[in-house]
Amino acid sequence: MRGLIIAVLALAAGCTLGRMSAQHVEPSCVLCETDYIAAEEIAAYVEVAKATGLTDQQVRSIDVGNTNVQIALAHRGALDAPRPNSVAEHDLVTEIYVVLSGSGTNRTGPDLVDKVRRPDDYRAVQFLNGPGHNAAEIRNPSTYELKAGDVFVIPAGTGHQFTKIDDHITYLMVRIDPDKVVPLLDAQDSRAYLEEHLR
Q1: What does the radius of gyration of the chain's CA atoms come to, in whole angstroms?
Q2: Any idea what DSSP says for residue 185?
Q3: pTM for the full model?
C-alpha cells in the first residue's frame, strides 16, 4: 500500500512538473526600455517643492506592460493638526511611500466619513493618482509613525491622512497604476518641468 501511495504521488508530481515546463510564458513588457532617475534629479524636485509649495510632483510615469508605474516626490512642511477634509483616497492607484527624510504621523483605513468625489479637472486626478475622494475622517483608522528609511504601502481604495509632521517629511512615491489612468511622463518631460520651475 505504501508503495502504491508513493507511486501515485510521484506520478502526480511528474504530471504537474510536466505541465509547468510545457507552459510558454511571454514577458509582460516586450522590448521595454529601462529608466534611471539620478539623485540629483530627485534633489531638484525637492528644491521645486520648497520654492513653490507644491507637495506632490510626478517625476516619471512609465508604461511597463500590464501596468503603468509612476515615481513621484512629495515634500510636506510641519503640521500640528490635520487640515479639514484632508483624507485622500485613490480608487485605482496604489501608493508606496519611501521616506527619505523627516517624520510624520499618518492614519489610514477604507471606511471614509463624508467622502466627496474629486472633480475630473483636479490636478491630482488628471496628472498624479487618478480618480478618488477626499473625506473628513476615517472610521477606526490604523496609525503609523513614519520616519526616514520607512516604506509604507497604501492600497488603492484606502484613505490616508497626515495628522502631524514634526518639521518636514520628504518621500518618494511609487505608484502602481494597472488601469493606466495617469498620463505618461518621461525623462525629457521631467527635464522640461525642472527647467521651467528652477529658472
Answers
A1: 22
A2: B
A3: 0.86
Secondary structure class of 21 (helix, strand, coil) = helix
In a domain, 1, yes or no: no
Question: Between residues 21 and 61, which one has the greater pLDDT?
Answer: 61
Looking at the structure of the chain, the number of domains it has is: 1
φ and ψ at residue 194, rounded to 5 degrees: -65, -40
Q: Which of 183, 179, 172, 185 is nearest to 92 (CA)?
A: 179
CA-CA distances (angstroms) from residue 120 to 54, 117, 184, 199? Answer: 19, 9, 18, 30
- Predicted confidence at residue 8, as pLDDT, reads 46
Non-local CB neighbours of 105 within 8 Å, separated by 6+ positions:
143, 144, 145, 146, 162, 163, 164, 165
Range of the domain at 149: 39-197
Whole-angstrom CA distances from 28 to 14, 25, 137 are 28, 9, 39
Residue 69 in any domain: the answer is yes
pLDDT over 80 (residue 12) = no
Q: What is the DSSP pairing of strand 142-147 with strand 94-109?
A: antiparallel
What are the two backbone dihedrals, phi and then psi, of residue 169, each rounded to the nearest 5 degrees?
-145, 130
pLDDT band at 59 (very low <50, low <70, confident <90, very high): very high
Residue 10 belongs to some domain of the structure = no
118, part of any domain: yes
The CATH number covering residue 184 comes to 2.60.120.10
What phi and psi values does residue 127 have, to the nearest 5 degrees?
Answer: -125, -10
Separation of CA 46 from chain center:
18
**Cα 170 from Cα 79, distance rounded (Å):** 13
